[in-house]
Amino acid sequence: MTVSEYASRGVGNRLVWELQGADSPLGLRGALGFRLRQLEQAGKGLLITIDEAQAISRVEQRDLLEAVANAQQQALNLVFAVAGIPPLMRRWADVPGSIMFNANRVTLEDVPVGEVETAFGISFSETGFNLTSDQLHEMAEATYGYPYLTQLVGYFVWRQLNRGAEADEAVQNGIDQAIQHLYPTLHEPELNTLSPIDIQYLQAMAQDDGISQTTTIANRMGKSVTYAGLYRTRLIKDRVIKSCGYGKVDFAIPYMRRFLRDEKTIARYDLQDLHQFLKSYSPFGLRG
């Protein structure tokens, strides 16, 4: 038996309903255990999948992990899988004593842009929209091969086309909407998990239009290269930035630089270094 859910509000109640029905007096732990024992008698087990897992509330996350842990302690036949945006999935492993701490983790790496373009062509053709090679290429380039952004670009362009927009307009508007959707769903939640020094490091990076030199970052922070390197290592581990060779880094999350330079972001997080930098900045060759 398979139960699949999204981690939106009320996920625990929806799981109880799927396991036991609307009139069940049992909580999530009781409903899960009861259903697993029923399935065990029939020689079967249960697979629970949770998508968009980064969106779950702390309370529902705790209740769900406790229910799963209780089932595991009883050696019941349960497989539990969650999927979400990599930088924001740390909260699942960070829960003290969580069963997820030693869970098997699979990270989707960036997809080659050429493969994204091919996939877009097939998908849109199958839904009756035949885009040109230039349009498909523009869409694929905008994703940087980032899986979550690939999903967003495909969806927003398709929605534009489905509403009757001309192809060129649909592609441009769809890409813009996908990027804007990243701000509240990825960029902002990620910044909220970082320390002030982490954010200072990202501020220093955001003053470059592309790859940053670690020595330059340290100078902008007013710190030693060794001190700044501690935060470089942590940010790379958390997949916020990536190494681009010795002494070089870039943002691993597409359009994070653009988000940091946004006036609303600067005001909300008091990014004074970026504020001063942008007063005299002339954009040239800006990358995500």
Walk me through the topology.
Blueprint: E1 2-6, H1 11-20, H2 28-41, E2 46-51, H3 58-73, E3 78-82, H4 90-93, H5 113-126, H6 133-143, H7 147-162, H8 167-192, H9 196-205, E4 212-213, H10 214-221, H11 225-237, E5 241-243, E6 248-251, H12 256-261, H13 263-269, H14 272-279
Parallel strand pairs: 1-2, 2-3
Antiparallel strand pairs: 4-6, 5-6
CATH level 3 topology of the largest domain: Rossmann fold
The named CATH superfamily of the largest domain: P-loop containing nucleotide triphosphate hydrolases
- CA-CA gap between termini: 42 Å
Question: What is the rounded Rg?
Answer: 22 Å
What would you say the CATH architecture of the largest domain is? 3-Layer(aba) Sandwich
Number of domains: 3
Strand fraction: 5-15%
Specify the CATH class of the largest domain. Answer: Alpha Beta
Number of helices: 14
* Mean of pLDDT: 89
Structural class of the helix and strand makeup? mainly alpha
Q: Main sheet, how many strands, which sense, barrel?
A: 3 strands, parallel
Question: Which stretches are low in confidence, meaning pLDDT under 50 for 5 or more residues running?
Answer: none
How many β-strand stretches?
Answer: 6
Shape: globular
Give helix and strand order, one letter per element, not per position.
Answer: EHHEHEHHHHHHEHHEEHHH
Strand order of the largest sheet: 1-2-3
Estimate percent helicity.
55-70%
3D structure, described in words:
InterPro entries: P-loop_NTPase. This is ATP-binding protein. It comes from Bifidobacterium callitrichidarum. Helix content is 57%, strand content 9%. It is mainly α. The chain folds into three domains: 2-102, P-loop containing nucleotide triphosphate hydrolases (Rossmann fold), CATH 3.40.50; 113-190; 194-279, Arc Repressor Mutant, subunit A (Orthogonal Bundle), CATH 1.10.10.10. A three-stranded parallel beta sheet has the order 1-2-3, with helices on one face. A three-stranded antiparallel beta sheet has the order 4-6-5. A hairpin with a 4-residue loop joins strand 5 (241-243) and strand 6 (248-251). The protein is globular. It starts with a strand and ends in a 9-residue tail after the last helix.
